[in-house]
Design goal:
Helix content is 58%, strand content 8%. It has helices at residues 15-33, 37-46, 70-90, 97-110, 128-137, 161-168, 184-195, 212-225, 263-325, 331-337, 341-350, 357-373, 376-390, 400-422, 436-449, 453-467, 474-477, and strands spanning 116-122, 144-148, 173-178, 199-204, 230-232, 240-245, 251-256. A 5-stranded parallel beta sheet has the order 2-1-3-4-5, sandwiched between helices. Strands 6-7 form a two-stranded antiparallel ribbon. Helix 5 links the parallel strand 1 (116-122) and strand 2. The structure holds guanosine-5'-triphosphate and magnesium ion (MG). Guanosine-5'-triphosphate (GTP) binds next to helix 5.
Length: 478
């Protein structure tokens, strides 16, 4: 690929002397900051990243999972098929294709699955196994299959909660067991299930261990967390002592095993199955289709990133050489010339986003002014200057800061574009309008990811290696 540079890339701005001055006063704190890097302190100083995280407090507004119809599930399957086909197009012999296609075929038959899959989960020893035993021997209300998961919330176990949740996501209904009021982690897990649109019944088991008023207050608390979806059970109540006074005055005592109390559970379960049975299966199918699509997309993005990386590197060093040769310290020119439009086109091609030169120029210009507005140009120049200095380069050649900064900014721009493109839907209609908000967020994120001192040190060394003749590098590399 021949790379034609339309315009020189100009970086500079505050100038070396200012960078050096700032370095003096910050030197100590930089040493302490270590991995957090210079940028964080600069950013905080400038108040840049001090946005408020205004997270709404957790609450269950709506507990029932939204029912999914057959058509919606089919659409999700088709979407995953599109991504798999695209993967096949871009990497004919990809090792994952066979299993992806196999899973896809299974999804089609999954739509007509008759047996409802129920996952029984909860912390260690809450009564999962016993509940399954009792339900199975009780004559089941419908055709279903009960599956116990590994216990949740254990630090030392061969199966992580994430793995258990992944397994649960393949079931249609979840029975979530607890023996009392919910812990924070239990509540969080319930919310995750809700977010995954999983139909869940909260089962308050071992209620026989409570006195009547205690039991009522636990139940009330649980119902507030999950209105309409809580049942109380005692699948294996402790034996109770029975005393009998005989006519002759003697007293007989023995232990009696009360029958399991699962009436509320079977009632709720049959109601759920009767009302939503097939919808539950379609919902599960959709969940699986989305997971399959994500897996295929992941592979696709990996392949594309492997292709994009050398492209970014190529433009990065072109930018470095250009800025090194023409060190114009003008921040305002950067707004229009920071990012090479041809790089935008090349990266767009890899991600199937066809862009005209004009569009690419707009994207490049937009990104340039975003980087300027976010203060990234200033921060980069300062940081590169600092790293150069802390590597004890006594002679900093003119244009070196500009050259390395230009390379660094090009890299951040390229990686941001890649990440932005990765998030785009794989659809038939490419050439989506640029989502500026998203692009801005991505830029900030990628910039922060690449601001670690360790990374910068390595990057600056690479840049110096490329820009300076051997003799001047002795001190830096040595
Ligand atoms: N009092 C009382 N004890 C119960 C009840 N349900 C289960 N248990 C007891 O709790 C203990 C654990 O029961 P399991 O069914 O093995 O619990 P589990 O959740 O499968 O346990 P793990 O698989 O080890 O996580 C056993 O001793 C049960 O007899 C109940 O309703 N009331
Ligand atoms: Mg068990």
């Amino acid at each position: 690929m021949v790379v034609k540079l339309e315009r020189p890339i100009l970086v500079g701005g505050l100038g070396l002397s200012f960078s050096l001055w700032i370095l003096q006063s910050w030197h100590d704190s930089i040493l302490q900051l270590g991995e957090f890097g210079l940028f964080s302190s600069l950013a905080v100083g400038g108040g840049l990243w001090l946005w408020q995280k205004n997270r709404p407090k957790a609450s269950w507004e709506q507990v029932d999972c939204t029912p999914v119809d057959r058509a919606t599930a089919q659409k999700a399957i088709a979407a995953s098929e599109t991504v798999i086909n695209q993967l096949a197009k871009e990497a004919e012999n990809h090792s994952s294709l066979a299993t992806l296609r196999e899973q896809l075929a299974q999804l089609f038959s999954e739509l007509d699955r008759q047996e409802i899959k129920i996952a029984v989960t909860g912390a260690k020893g809450v009564g999962k196994s016993t509940l399954i035993e009792v339900l199975n021997s009780n004559g089941s209300p419908g055709k279903f299959n009960l599956q116990e998961t590994a216990p949740l919330f254990r630090e030392t176990t061969d199966k992580s909660d994430v793995a258990v949740l992944a397994e649960i996501s393949k079931s249609d209904v979840v029975l979530f067991l607890t023996n009392g009021d919910l812990t924070d982690t239990e509540f969080q897990t319930l919310q995750q299930l809700k977010a995954a649109n999983q139909s869940t019944i909260l089962v308050f088991n071992k209620q026989d261990q409570y006195l009547a008023d205690e039991r009522a207050s636990v139940l009330l608390s649980l119902q507030q967390r999950m209105p309409g979806n809580v049942v109380a059970t005692a699948v294996s109540p402790v034996p109770i002592k029975v005393r009998k006074y005989e006519a002759d005055g003697t007293v007989q005592e023995w232990l009696e095993q009360p029958a399991p109390d699962i009436a509320q559970l079977t009632q709720q379960l049959s109601a759920v199955l009767a009302q939503q049975g097939q919808n539950l299966v379609w919902t599960t199918t959709m969940r699986k289709a989305l997971a399959l699509k994500a897996e295929a997309k992941n592979w696709l993005n990996k392949i594309r990133r492997d292709r994009a990386t050398p492209v970014i590197e190529q433009y990065q060093w072109i930018a470095a050489a250009t800025a090194f040769a023409n060190p114009v310290p003008a921040l305002d020119i950067l707004a229009t010339a920071a990012i090479n439009a041809q790089m935008v086109i090349d990266l767009g091609n890899i991600y199937q986003q066809k862009l005209s030169l004009e569009q690419a120029q707009t994207v490049a210009g937009t990104m340039g002014s975003l980087m300027l507005k976010l203060g990234l140009v200033e921060l980069s120049t300062k940081a590169v200057g600092t790293v150069l200095k802390s590597n004890a380069i006594t002679f900093v050649a003119g244009g070196l800061v500009q050259g390395v900064s230009a390379a660094y900014l090009t890299r951040v721009a390229g990686l941001s574009l890649v990440e932005y493109f990765e998030q785009q839907e794989i659809a038939l209609d490419s050439g989506n309008a640029l989502n500026l908000d998203k692009l801005r967020q991505t830029l900030q994120k990628v910039f922060q990811q690449n601001q670690q001192m360790a990374f910068l040190q390595g990057f600056v060394q690479q840049g110096v290696k490329r820009l300076l003749p051997q003799t001047q590098q002795v001190e830096l590399i040595g």
